What we know:
Blueprint: H1 2-28, E1 43-54, E2 72-82, E3 87-99, E4 105-117, E5 120-121, E6 124-125, E7 128-139, E8 142-159, E9 164-177, E10 186-200
Antiparallel strand pairs: 1-2, 1-10, 2-3, 3-4, 4-7, 5-6, 6-8, 7-8, 8-9, 9-10
Amino acid sequence: MKKIIAICCAFFLISTATVFCQEEEDESDGFAVEYRMNEPGDQFINIGLMVTFPLNFGGSFPLYREGQMATGGAGTIGYHRFLTSWLALGFDVSFGYNPTIGENMFTYVPFVLCLTVQPSIKKFEFPITMGIGAAVETYLSRTYFPGLVLKPEAGVYYRVTPSWSFGAKGNFMYMPQWYDNSDYNDYGNFASIAIGARYHF
């Protein structure tokens, strides 16, 4: 009798376990978990430091010292929000400077609206951005505003943690100055190499 009860109990336990396993398998049918680096609504703040090369003011790479303008620097900060898992809209503000041949400073503060396409592979992100905006440009006592800014850039970042990524990028910045007298028109072309960090939230 004890053997029959033991066999019945064992059979009951095995049957129950089998039913639960089948139910768990049924519940998971057709359901797949997919992890994406970014989702719509995700945001990030980026900061960066750049070396800026004046491309069309004479001189030679890398310092352009014998030209009208020498190599300078810039810092940038921006806010961006993902519209999809690979498309983000944002806004960047920078402050840049380049010394001139007369040991004066040409300074500029561009405000740029940015549209970014960002493919990713594992923890690597590859932002490709097109920016358009306006700049405050100052040299000696003269200020030019608003100056058109076009700023395409591309880079690579590595997501160290879910909240932080670090990387580098390069950009080209076109800043023309147009006057009523076209003899005074100027067309600034600058290239920059930047290192940066992004805080994701």
